[in-house]
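Archive entry. Fields below.
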Amino acid sequence: MGFPHNPHARETVLLSQYFGDPEARSYKGWVKRGGYEALQQALAMPPAAVTDVVKESGLRGRGGAGFPTGLKWTFMPKEKDKKKPHYLCVNADESEPGTFKDREIMRWTPHALLEGTLITMHAIQADVAYIYIRGEFTEPFAVMEQALAEATAAKALGTFKIYLHKGAGAYICGEETALMSSIEGKRGNPRIKPPFPAAFGVFGMPTTINNVETLAVVPHIITHGAAWHKAMSLSSPKSTGTKLFSVCGHIQKPGNYEVTMGFPLKDLVYELAGGMRPGRTLKACIPGGSSVPILNREETERCLLDYEGCVAEGTLLGSGGVIVFDDSADMVYQIMRLARFYAHESCAQCTQCREGTAWTTKILERVLAGQGKMQDLDLLLDLAENMTGKTICVLSDSCAAPVVSGIKKFRGEFEDYIAGRRRAMVA
Amino acid sequence: MSVVEEYQPVFTGKTLDRLREIFTRYPTKAAAMLPALWLVQEARGWVSDRSMVEVGELLGVTPAHVRGVVTFYTMFHQHPVGRNFVQVCTTSPCNLCGAEDVVQAFLEHTGARELGATSPDGAWTVTEVECLGACGFATPVLVNADFVESVTPERVPEIVRKYK
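PREDICTED_STRUCTURE:
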């Protein structure tokens, strides 16, 4: 995608307005653009009132689960125990294949994230916030470091403390309880819930974990009000606001596009992102990052991009990572590649996940090598069933989703390999 | 008779000062684990067994605990790597855009030949990596700490020349 960002006429530009504008990166530049006014406004309100506005706005978590943000904040203790500091963990461990929105928010508008973080800290009465940035994000980390130093020097933080915490290469650390384990200096193993983070979170203290995009929206909600945010919806009233969609794969103009919730997926793909390469047609699409079921062409052209619209097509909005496959894509190979990703990233605590992701990959590799049997497809589905809803976190489910939907929708491609009608183009 | 090289601690002088500052950010010393290991890798290029012991002593945890952490996170090197460490994203979205050809080009032009192996001159190690989170800029490649976007096989010789 090119910078500065020239938005398409059908985009609703809120978070991405200053993408590509280097001046917006500095504290002064951000203040000039109206930055930190929402913070002042929020600090003048009681914490519960800030939470109420966000609750009323209908904002739901942009990291993948879509949990109502304001409601999550209300789980934090109202009366603060002096011996129990409150923590906010900012999830900037963006690693979901197909997703690259938080990266752009941090690298172009770091102060939007800091302002959203500070408002949220006020709302949940947090003393300390850790922004957990994945280790591979060297540039966003440097930009955030600079922004934090500038904001600190300008005394924008008040008594709040914000620290950047650099990850070291582990997809699972984007799972909220694994993220807390990682901040505590341990292996990034997810933990069983309950206890929930709001009661027993990082260092055993009340904790809220929010995604970067979610927090970057918060200042806008404070400035314009809950009703304004709630009114931004093209389809389901349960999905409000704008959403950044990262479009990638077989597409003419890959990049981030910000649209109002309920926007048609087909318009995003064919119009905003420029459609297929010449002579190619759309075969499949994953609308919410690699962990959600794959859509075929018909479903893609029908799907509306909000939480409910995706569910209606049997998939999920997830993180908004839109992966496009044209008719040249080998679905068996691509699904194996996704399974390999999950096998590599499994923390290996739960048997179903550790064994399931590894065996799913091995069986798919066998099919690709021309050594598969027809029973392998049933075996894969059987494995997938045992990998769904049975583990501490949903990494195992995430591996099963593309496999099950892939076999269901592109079964012919699998059978071609098994029957020897097709050979792998790549090893 | 074997010669045992004396271990030079990583955490002395300014590096120790940096660790002490990091300790102030967390309520427990053990939480400084990832930052401490990053400091070790910055100084030595990798994390040796002896460095794990040193980190354990400073953080008040066992060397086994440190090893458990080091082996969990893929970015920590458990053995020396080339002066230039190349990580090419080959997860699905980049794969669709030809990432595997980029890997081949790096293996060829750096002389590293095999994934994970170091070139004979010690200059290069090339690895495949899972999703770098920049799928719209396929193929993203990390060369040391430099994030290079939209790499094609044609651009690889120029990138290799730059780091030689």
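CURATOR_NOTE: The mean pLDDT of chain A is 96.
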